[in-house]
Amino acid sequence: MSDMIVIEFCADADRIENAGLVQDGKMVWLTETDFKARVRAGAEAVIVLHGSHVVGHSVELPNFTDAKLLKILPGLMEDKLSVAGEVRHFALLGERDPEQGTRLVGVIDTEVMDNITTKVKELSLSLFAIVPDYMLIPQNADRAVAWEIGGFVRARLTDGSGFCAEPGLAEVMLPETAETVSVSNKKWRQVLETAQTKHTNLLQGSYAPRGDILAGLVWFKRAGMLLATLCLVWFGSVLLTASQNNQKADLLYQEAEAVFREALPDVPRIVNMEAQMRRAVADARQQGGGEFFALSQMIFSAVQDNQETMLESLRYDSENGNIALSVSFASFAESERFKDHLLRAGARVTEGSSRQESARVFSDILVERGD
Asked: Other CB atoms closer than 10 Å to residue 121's CB: what's the count?
């Protein structure tokens, strides 16, 4: 658990009036030498701000959330401020009175807030809270409480508000029933010890503490290292898989190349195996189509030359490059003349079965290109 330090600045906030270090629930008051030696960098600091910088007003407010109230406070408080146009910071101090609907509003110059936050950073401390000094005085619902400490009167009024002023000015501001009591530094230090427990923090709105992202990441250091390890393992597995796939691809390419060279031994050079194979198949198909047209031209010429010849059926075998015909003739003599015509045209004719039906002779003939 980090240390907590309570620091009270003087009226001008140029030096530390009191500084106490809270350790194991006990307050140890420090000298300037002790402060430099014992206060750890990054320790959380509760700043007790001189009340002359903070004006407190008890204001009737709607029952909104704190975040919404902080947005509308500048407009609500405009008629309660003596000087217009100044840049001020507003904070909600304490809890809302459920019966009266009032709540204490603290008003402070933003320049003072900026100076305090800068000084805390210079001391290498983490700002935890800024509390007005008069808010540490116990509230009395019956009469105002006024303490004179170190040349200033700190007063807490019955409505919870308060102020810090010089004795002459405080006498004018206090009600007639109020009595100013001189308080020793020892007793005041005892009151300062309660600063860490007070719910009157001026660090609200734009001054609200924001978490240190880098500090928060420390909690996820182990998870981050585990994630990094898992990413490295995943990346390694991807590289291994890619390497294995490349090896398989090389083997498949070699096998495909062997099949390609066996199928197309006349191709001297392989540039694009897929494109070259497609071209070879297309050429073979084109050549097969040319064979069909050449044979069909011979057959149709022979049919035309024999007036009594009828072509019953025709089937082309692209794999063997031949045409199987079923032809009918008026006589066997016509059949012989048909075959002679094909032979003269350069075809090779293989006659299959022949039969006679009624007055027609039917023959099965296989026609292919001659050598």
From this structure: 11
